[in-house]
């Protein structure tokens, strides 16, 4: 095999050398392109650990607004000399001429570098190039990428990512962006760029989607280049170091549908001009660092009737918010107002859009919840860190207990009193997270909590008493069970050991008593964290208990081999 690649390398060297003397030569025959791609393949190694660094975005509003990377696999493994490249995984050819027009190696577990001599640049007919989610490292983005004169889609995002190290780096090239007369999609997110946004970006007149998020650009949002992108539909500058105000000039981008400016250091109120962008479907201004956005939520926000998600969490917005400001946003699916200085109120007839699925009103001064009546499709409901003192009757009967799609319910850090409603246990079988910690609940744990989808149940820091209901044995996907800091009074619940996925069990600071007994050594086989302190257990810990905790054991195979 090595002799074969030496041979095709020899042929390709002379082909490429001759093409520099005769620039008019274009590779269109599938066999020529196969040689080029096989050389490109040989410049990379396969690194299966690439699948580990793709982040899991848990926020629902991200899941409905961002494309996720599919599970990674080595796409180039299907490439070989016995078949034409047009049949290879990740390669698409023009059906008439046979030219390679699309190369999608995203999530391809590639590890290596691309320099200016790469055979990749000998594919002049490319219209789509996607190398995202690999480990392309040790090289800057070559300006020769500008030679792809027919390119419509370029995605080099999330390369070389390992912890905080980004290896595909450098100042964003500012010379040849004017070559991209046809480029409509540019994604260079999560690459360590330095300096300011170059005005030359404005030369890409056909650009519709621009993704430049992730830890690099500094200075202000310099509008001069951006303002000439009249076709722009999506602008993503999230997660940089941009500072200063949100410029009113952005309102000239009349085709803009999505605007991501979150996780920067922007300041001042939201400019009124921004609300003239009537095509806007997504607005993300969350978590804008130390110089946060301030002032009241403008009532003009209600004019953005096409919004599907709105995220303005972790800012310094203040004043009162009438729920009716969102009622005309009939497409709204996600609303994230977490961690501001706002008070939410509603009138008797106030409603939320029926389409809403993600609602985060954590850390607010909420006193009543009548508006939840109009939100039957909720997927995530977060009302934590508020001053709610009781669960109104309308919640269990009309809202929470009838939410067939609800996966996350967070009522933690409030002042709820009384018993946990029994209907909580009858909730949708899709419920995954139930968090009611740090309240004033009394009585017993509902005896009908048995959802197979439940992964987390957190009831710590309440005044619950009695036994742990045996119905929890049916929650076979439970990973976290925290019942600490209550008044539970029972023997050690050894039967919880049958839960095959339980990794965290906290029973501390209760009134559990008696001996700790286990039925088999296979009990608690996945357990990694166990808290039993401040109870009334007696006797010794059974050796079988420690034999069961196989997931707590960490074996250094390298060290073990070295000592053999």
From TrEMBL:
Can you say what this protein is called?
Leucine-rich repeat-containing N-terminal plant-type domain-containing protein
GO BP, one example?
Answer: response to other organism
What is the membrane topology noted in the UniProt record heading this document?
Single-pass type I membrane protein
The answer to whether the entry has keyword Membrane is yes
Signal peptide segment:
1-19
> Per the record, what is one GO cellular component?
plasma membrane
Q: Which family does it belong to?
A: Belongs to the RLP family.
Q: Which UniProt keywords apply?
A: Cell membrane, Glycoprotein, Leucine-rich repeat, Membrane, Repeat, Signal, Transmembrane, Transmembrane helix
Cellular location(s): Cell membrane
Lineage, please? Eukaryota, Viridiplantae, Streptophyta, Embryophyta, Tracheophyta
Q: Which residues form the Leucine-rich repeat-containing N-terminal plant-type domain?
A: 75-94
Known InterPro entries for this protein? Leu-rich_rpt, Leu-rich_rpt_typical-subtyp, LRR_dom_sf, LRR_N_plant-typ, RLP23-like
**Known Gene3D superfamilies for this protein?**
Ribonuclease Inhibitor (3.80.10.10)
């Amino acid at each position: 095999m090595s002799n074969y690649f030496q041979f095709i390398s020899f042929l390709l060297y002379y082909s490429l050398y001759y093409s520099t003397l005769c620039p008019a030569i274009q590779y269109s025959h599938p066999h020529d392109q196969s040689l080029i791609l096989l050389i490109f393949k040989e410049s990379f190694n396969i690194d299966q650990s690439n699948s580990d660094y793709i982040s899991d975005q848990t926020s629902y509003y991200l899941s409905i607004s961002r494309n996720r990377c599919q599970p990674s696999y080595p796409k180039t493994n299907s490439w070989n000399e016995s078949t034409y490249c047009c049949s290879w995984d990740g390669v698409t050819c023009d059906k008439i001429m046979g030219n390679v027009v699309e190369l999608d190696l995203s999530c391809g577990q590639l590890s290596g570098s691309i320099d200016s001599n790469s055979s990749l640049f000998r594919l002049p007919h490319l219209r789509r190039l996607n190398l995202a989610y690999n480990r392309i490292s040790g090289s800057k983005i070559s300006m020769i990428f500008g030679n792809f004169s027919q390119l419509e889609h370029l995605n080099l995002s999330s390369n070389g990512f390992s912890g905080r190290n980004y290896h595909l780096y450098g100042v964003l090239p500012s010379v040849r962006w004017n070559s991209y007369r046809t480029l409509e999609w540019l994604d260079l997110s999560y690459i360590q760029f330095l300096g300011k946004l170059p005005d030359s970006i404005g030369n890409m007149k056909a650009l519709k989607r621009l993704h430049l998020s992730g830890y690099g650009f500094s200075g202000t949002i310099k509008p001069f280049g951006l303002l000439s992108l009249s076709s722009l539909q999506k602008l993503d500058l999230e997660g940089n170091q941009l500072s200063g105000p949100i410029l009113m000039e952005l309102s000239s981008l009349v085709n803009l549908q999505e605007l991501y400016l979150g996780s920067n250091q922007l300041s001042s109120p939201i400019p009124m001009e921004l609300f003239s962008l009537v095509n806007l479907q997504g607005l993300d201004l969350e978590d804008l660092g130390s110089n946060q956005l301030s002032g009241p939520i403008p009532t003009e926000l209600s004019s953005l009737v096409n919004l599907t998600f709105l995220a303005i969490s972790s800012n310094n917005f203040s004043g009162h918010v009438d729920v009716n400001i969102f009622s005309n946003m009939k497409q709204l699916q996600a609303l994230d107002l977490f961690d501001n200085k706002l008070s939410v109120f509603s009138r008797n007839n106030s409603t939320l859009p029926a389409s809403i699925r993600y609602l985060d009103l954590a850390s607010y001064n909420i006193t009543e919840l009548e508006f939840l009546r109009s939100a039957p499709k909720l997927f995530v409901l977060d009302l934590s860190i508020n001053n709610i003192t009781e669960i109104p009757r309308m919640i269990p009967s009309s809202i929470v207990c009838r939410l067939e799609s609800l996966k996350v319910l967070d009522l933690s850090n409030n002042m709820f009193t009384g018993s946990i409603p029994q209907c909580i246990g009858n909730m949708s079988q899709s419920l995954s997270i139930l968090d009611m910690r740090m309240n004033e609940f009394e009585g017993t744990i509902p005896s009908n909590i048995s959802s197979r989808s439940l992964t987390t149940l957190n009831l710590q820091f309440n005044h619950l008493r009695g036994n742990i209901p045996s119905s929890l044995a049916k929650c076979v996907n439970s990973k976290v069970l925290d019942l600490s800091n209550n008044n539970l009074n029972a023997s050690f619940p050894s039967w919880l050991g049958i839960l095959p996925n339980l990794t965290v069990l906290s029973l501390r600071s209760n009134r559990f008593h008696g001996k700790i007994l286990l039925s088999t050594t296979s009990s608690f086989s996945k357990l990694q964290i166990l808290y039993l302190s401040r109870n009334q257990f007696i006797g010794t810990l059974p050796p079988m208990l420690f034999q069961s905790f196989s997931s707590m054991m960490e074996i250094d195979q390298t060290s073990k081999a070295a000592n053999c």
